[in-house]
Structure formats: structure tokens, C-alpha cells
């Protein structure tokens, strides 16, 4: 009888042990989904390069594409996304300031997209006529960035100290009497046939087959402070899935892809 009880106890222990191993194995093998919002070019294209790397770590990367700069942050804050990758630091800072209910932070800087001045009507800045119409983004940070670029190009002078918060009201010298047409950033490149010049973010330029390197008549250099970042909800910076995403994005593989694909229109910062 004692021997039978010992055998039964051993069998129960073995069953529990096997069940426990199976449970741990299933848990370790569970595939997690990471949903990341991005504009299509270049952000979504860059994210596509790390899908397999994340899959090897048990993470399925789902890329949700956007054509605007507002919804990706609102959706991230509302937990419809795990992260987003589309904006630069000044834009996020301003967005959070304008939407105090939004609790987002910069998790990692990945690349710079130089902003450029483009035209279908002139090939040089000094060819712009008096009263030229120039399209610029209408959101605070990209609008200020565009005006700073125009000032750096020598077309206008801005009030001292306005920095990235500059608006058209801060233009103190405008020798060509430029008329500013302020539009949503994504719409600016679509006006290039109708205006004398347009100041365009590189990602939107590439979406309409404008080559930022070859087609610009003036462009930011690599010292631009407008680093494009992965943003997450406050407190999610150290989530293993987020850290895996950042590690994958900062790989030599991604840097090589950026260099070869965009040829200077997008510049890796890692």
C-alpha cells in the first residue's frame, strides 16, 4: 500500500511538472503585438525594415499609417497605439503644451529630415519676384522652422529671439514682399505648381516624388535640431517591447538602409 501511494505521488508530481513546463513554454512563446503609428515616408518604410528583427523576439510589429500630425499623438495617448514615429522634438514639446491632457515623452531620436525650399518656377532664390507667394506649414513648430529657414536663406529677417516660435507676424524685414500661404504641412507640397516657392518637410516632399537632395533650392544642413523621434506614453519608455523597437531602429542595418534609400534626404542620428 505504501509503495502504491509513493508511485501515485510520483505520477502526480510528474504531471504537475510537465504542466508547469508547458505553461512556461507557452508563456515564453506568446507573441506580443506592438502597434506603432507613422507617416508613410520615411517613417513607415524605416519601420518595415525591423519587422523581422522584432518577430525573432516574439514581437509582431503593426504599422498604422497616418497622413496628418495630430491623430497619431491623440491615438497614442488614448492607448490605441503603443508608440508613434513621425514627429520631431519641438513638435512634440509644443503639442504637449497645447494639449495638457496628453502625456507623451521622447523615447529615442532616430533621424533628421532636412526641411527645404522648393520651386517649379525658379531655380535660384534670387530669381523670386517681388510679391512672390511662398507656401509654409501652418502648425506652430513647422511654421517657425520654415520661417527660420527663409531667414537663413536671406529672404526675410525675423524679430530677435523669436526662435522656433516665430510666426509671420515676427517678420521685420521682407525685401521681396513675400506673401505667405499657410497650410497644413501635408498639403504644402501639393501647392508647388500654384505658388512661387514652398517650404516642405522632406517626408512630405518624397511622398509627391520631390527629391529633397536634387530638387531643393535651399535646404537645412545636418546641424538641424529637429530630430525625429519614437514617442510613447509617459512611463512606457522602459517597456521591453519599446526597448526592443528602439534597439532595432538604431541598428547598423537601419542606418545602412537610410543612407542607401534616401541618399541624404534623411539622415540617421545614431
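^ Assign residues to that structure.
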Amino acid at each position: 500500500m505504501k509503495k502504491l501511494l509513493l508511485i501515485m505521488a510520483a505520477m502526480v508530481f510528474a504531471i504537475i511538472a510537465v504542466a508547469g513546463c508547458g505553461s512556461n513554454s507557452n508563456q515564453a512563446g506568446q507573441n506580443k503585438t506592438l502597434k506603432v503609428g507613422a507617416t508613410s515616408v520615411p517613417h513607415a518604410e524605416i519601420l518595415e525594415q525591423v519587422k523581422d528583427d522584432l518577430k525573432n523576439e516574439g514581437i509582431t510589429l503593426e504599422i498604422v499609417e497616418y497622413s496628418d500630425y495630430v491623430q497619431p499623438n491623440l491615438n497614442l495617448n488614448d492607448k490605441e497605439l503603443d508608440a508613434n514615429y513621425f514627429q520631431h522634438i519641438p513638435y512634440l514639446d509644443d503639442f504637449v503644451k497645447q494639449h495638457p491632457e496628453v502625456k507623451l515623452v521622447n523615447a529615442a531620436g532616430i533621424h533628421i529630415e532636412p526641411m527645404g525650399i522648393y520651386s517649379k518656377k525658379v531655380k535660384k532664390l534670387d530669381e523670386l519676384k517681388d510679391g512672390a507667394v511662398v507656401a509654409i506649414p501652418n502648425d506652430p513648430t513647422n511654421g517657425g522652422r520654415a520661417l527660420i529657414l527663409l531667414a537663413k536663406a536671406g529672404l526675410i529677417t525675423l524679430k530677435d529671439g523669436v526662435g522656433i516660435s516665430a510666426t509671420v507676424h515676427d517678420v521685420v524685414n521682407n525685401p521681396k514682399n513675400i506673401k505667405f500661404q499657410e497650410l497644413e504641412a501635408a498639403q504644402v507640397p501639393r501647392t508647388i505648381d500654384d505658388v512661387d516657392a514652398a517650404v516642405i518637410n522632406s517626408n512630405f516632399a518624397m511622398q509627391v516624388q520631390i527629391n529633397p537632395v536634387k530638387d531643393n533650392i535651399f535646404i537645412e544642413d545636418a546641424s538641424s535640431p529637429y530630430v525625429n523621434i519614437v514617442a510613447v506614453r509617459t512611463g512606457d519608455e522602459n517597456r521591453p517591447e519599446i526597448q526592443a523597437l528602439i534597439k532595432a531602429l538604431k541598428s547598423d542595418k537601419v542606418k545602412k538602409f537610410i543612407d542607401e534609400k534616401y541618399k541624404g534626404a534623411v539622415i540617421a542620428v545614431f
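The longest strand covers residues 104-112.
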